[in-house]
Amino acid sequence: MKALRQEADERLLVEAAQRDPRRFGELYELNFHRVYAYVSRRVHNREEAEDITSDVFHHALAKLKQFEWRDTPFAAWLFRIAANAVTDRWKRVARENRDEALDDLADTKAHDIEHSASLFRLVESLPADQRRVVVMRFVEQKSIKEIAEEIGRTEGAVKQLQFRALEKLRAQMGDANA
Fold first, then answer.
1. CA–CA separation, 81 vs 38, rounded Å?
2. What is the DSSP string of 39-58?
3. Which residues, in sequence order, are CB contacts of 105 under 8 Å at separation 6+?
4. How many Cβ atoms from other residues are within 10 Å of residue 157's Cβ?
5. Share of the chain residues as helix, strand and coil, in percent rounded to the nearest 5
6. How far apart are the first and last CA of the chain?
7. How far is CA 105 from the centre of its chain?
8. Nearest Cα residue to 130 out of 167, 88, 93, 96
9. What is the pLDDT of residues 79-128, one digit of tens each?
10. 3 state DSSP class of 36
11. Cα–chain-centroid distance for residue 175?
12. What is the pLDDT of residue 178?
């Protein structure tokens, strides 16, 4: 009996608010805590839960004239609006995170390509012996011993060529970044 009375009262409140939107405040007071609890359990952030709950009631007020009774409480309609708002938020956050990640990736790739091109130009400017050792060591990934055998020098000489080449590259890259 009490449930029927509450439903009838709620129905009267909705009909009154549909005729006069200033009466919506009573529906707001009656349902705010339930909608806020529903939203806050799903977003786990107080500020966002407050924002979404506010959006739910703004949307409900804007669409109140379209609300029709279908043997479910008014709160069920509010929960449906809230569920859609939470879903929209998740989609928006996912899209923003994806877009940020893609932007970061694009920036990183562009920077890496630029850096590689600059380094390639600097390696090309090295003396022939140093350039050959750097290419064999870091591009072809050969050991010091393999390089020494291939170019007919001692391992110490190869290490010295590599050291001088790297020092020259560091100095040139420092000048390029200055």
1. 11
2. HHHHH--HHHHHHHHHHHHH
3. none
4. 16
5. 90, 0, 10
6. 82
7. 12
8. 167
9. 899 999 988 888 888 877 776 766 666 566 666 667 767 777 887 888 98
10. helix
11. 36
12. 41
Torsion of CA 71, 77, 78, 79, to 10 degrees: 90
- Residue 112 is predicted with a pLDDT of 66
CA distance 103 to 157: 45
Q: Which one is predicted more confidently, 26 or 175?
A: 26
Question: Strand, helix or coil at 168?
Answer: helix
Residue corresponding to tokens 């707001």: 28
User: Amino acid identity, residue 19?
Assistant: R
**What angle separates helix 24-43 from helix 46-63, to the nearest 10 degrees?**
140
User: Are 56 and 35 in contact, with CB atoms under 8 Å apart?
Assistant: yes
Could you please report the per-residue DSSP string of 55-115? HHHHHHHHHGGG----SS-HHHHHHHHHHHHHHHHHHHHHHHHHHHHHHHHHHHHHHHHHH
Q: Sorting pLDDT into bands at 50, 70 and 90, what band is 66? A: confident
The better pLDDT of the pair 21, 114 is held by 21
Regarding pTM above 0.70, the answer is no
Using one digit for the tens of pLDDT, what is the confidence trace for 141-162?
Answer: 889 999 999 899 999 998 999 9
- Pull the structure tokens for residue 63: 């669409």
